[in-house]
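__Protein archive entry__

___
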Amino acid sequence: MKITIIGLGGVGGYFGFKLADAFKKSIDVQVNFIARETTYNVVKEHGLTLISPEHRHPVAYPEGLFQKIADAPVADLWLVCVKEYDLENICLQLRDKIKPGAVILPLMNGVDIYDRIRKLIPDGVVLPACVYVASHIKEKGIVEHKGAAGRIILGRDPEHLPYDPSEIVALLKQAGIDILYKEDALVDIWTKFFFIASFGLVSARYNKPIGVVNEDPELHSRANRIMGELKLIADQKGIAVPPDIIELTFKKAATFPYTTPTSLQLDVQSGKVHTELELFAGAIISYGNLLDIPVVETSRIYDEIKAGLLS
């Protein structure tokens, strides 16, 4: 089996390392990486480094390393681990490489990732997935992981229900990856999104950490209204999130250290050109327009953040 990991950031670097390390002597599994520019050069010369309590030996080398998807061999399994703003470009490059039976596993945040991939890549199997991992790029080619082991929750492709992903699940487990298969992973994807979208948007708008968003009455109320709009969308789409999802989300937020920032907050406040704003607010607004559901609060906070970025 040929496996190719696209993107060696915090997510791709963590799971890509585990796969390359586990199958480095395998004659049955080939692991390839797609990396850009500096990361490519560092990994080519020094290997991919993962600083993690899970691994005594921190360096792994893929069997193949490429800068362009076009140069990589056709793979049986593609792990797409890129930022939201790179997804369309990656899909356009990838679609000619997807042969019947090939599997795409997107390890990305967002509730619309599956729909966006399917819009550009009609062939192959796309497995909806939800990922949890506390890892980040320390330097190019070096990923640092802390806390609990990374976890993947994946489900069946709604357009290819007969496809059984058990072989993929078994293979990832063989690499020491904590993976859970569910018939329908969309509930987990949306449940995570309720938290990262609402708290991400409010924390970015006010530059306040999770604890303040949870406890300040005005900020709490704005997050609550965003989640209310999300709940209307999820219900209309038939996503069976818990009836008390909003209450559960605030309880989850309370488990984080009070001063924890969100990634969107950090990116917006540092003036990054590319952020997760479209991934969060853009998706909610698009679904609202598509389903004729008013998303007034999300639209308002989206405009406020955009105005701040342009000022």
Notes: The chain has a mean pLDDT of 95.
